[in-house]
Structures are given as structure tokens and as C-alpha cells.
């Protein structure tokens, strides 16, 4: 199975589709799945503090019609947009990222999805992602975003 290759543009500029000549580049879908899982806004839980103080819990409208009740797309990483660079916030970033990738294991796409969150330099949140699949080499991805706080 192939997908349109989605690429992450470093340092908070978002995602885009990769081109191959006049058409879209293709991949096996794993990197695209990881990027969309991490960088699509999952609906905030009822007890999550919304960064801008509004009542907007975001999320994808399609989650209301999920095949599996309670199945949610994306991550809650957006909730960290105004947090300080603290060790406790890195723990939450790792938890939110692993939560967003959990479906890969639940749906038997991967055997494991491990995330390490770090601050490689001031103002940057980095996520190192390792995906283990049966019969495939471990895939590793690294994403960095501006931390606006």
C-alpha cells in the first residue's frame, strides 16, 4: 500500500506533501501516519487546561463518527504551546506523543512506538520517535518545533 508522502517542515512551519516531478511522491504510509498522528490536534480532555483560556477543545469533527467509540485522531501536543521549558512538560510531551501513536500498536501496524522528548536548545521541543515493526528495520524520526513560551 502506498500513500502520498507527507513531510514535516522543521521549526513549527507545519506539514506539506512531497513532490516527485510533476506529481506527488509516495511512501509506505508509516511516516505520513506518524506525522498526522503527532501534528493533528486531538480533542482536549475535559480536564485539560486550554492554552489560550478559551473553551475551544479543538479536535477533528470526524472523531464524532469514529468506527470505534472513543477513537481520536491526532495529539494533545498543542496544549503545550504556552508552557515553559520544564522537565515536567517534557514528560507530558512524551506522554501526549505516545498517546497519539498508540493506535499503531493497537491496530497491529507496529510492535512498539517509543518517544523521547527533549529540549536540544532554547525554544525548541524535539521528539525522537522509534517505530518497531515485525520483519522491518526500526524506523526513527526526529521532529523539532518552536516552543512559543
In short:
With 149 residues, the chain is of the alpha+beta class. It has helices at residues 30-39, 87-106, and strands spanning 3-4, 6-9, 14-17, 19-20, 23-24, 26-27, 112-118, 124-132, 139-146. The mean pLDDT is 85.
List the helices and strands and how they pair.
Layout: E1 3-4, E2 6-9, E3 14-17, E4 19-20, E5 23-24, E6 26-27, H1 30-39, H2 87-106, E7 112-118, E8 124-132, E9 139-146
Antiparallel strand pairs: 1-6, 2-3, 4-5, 7-8, 8-9
- CATH-assigned fold name: Nuclear Transport Factor 2, Chain: A
Shape: globular
Mean pLDDT: 85
Side-by-side strand order of the widest sheet: 7-8-9
What does the oligomeric state look like here?
Answer: single chain
Uncertain runs with pLDDT below 50, 5 residues or more? none
Rg over alpha carbons: 16 Å
- Percent of residues in helices comes to 10-25%
In CATH, the architecture is Roll
Give the H and E element order: EEEEEEHHEEE
Distance between the amino and carboxyl termini: 40 Å
Amino acid at each position: 500500500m502506498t500513500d502520498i508522502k507527507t513531510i514535516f517542515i522543521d521549526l513549527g512551519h507545519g506539514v506539506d506533501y512531497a513532490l516527485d516531478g510533476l506529481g506527488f511522491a509516495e511512501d509506505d504510509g508509516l511516516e505520513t501516519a506518524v506525522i498526522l498522528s503527532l501534528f493533528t490536534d486531538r480533542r482536549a480532555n475535559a480536564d485539560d487546561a486550554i492554552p489560550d483560556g478559551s473553551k475551544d477543545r479543538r479536535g477533528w469533527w470526524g472523531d464524532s463518527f469514529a468506527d470505534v467509540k472513543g477513537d481520536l485522531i491526532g495529539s494533545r501536543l498543542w496544549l503545550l504551546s504556552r508552557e515553559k521549558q520544564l522537565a515536567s512538560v517534557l514528560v507530558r510531551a512524551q506522554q501526549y506523543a505516545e498517546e497519539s501513536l498508540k493506535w499503531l500498536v493497537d491496530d497491529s501496524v507496529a510492535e512498539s512506538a517509543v518517544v523521547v522528548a527533549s529540549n536540544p536548545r532554547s525554544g525548541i521541543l524535539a521528539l525522537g520517535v522509534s517505530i518497531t515493526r515485525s520483519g522491518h528495520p526500526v524506523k526513527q524520526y526526529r521532529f523539532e518545533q518552536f516552543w512559543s513560551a
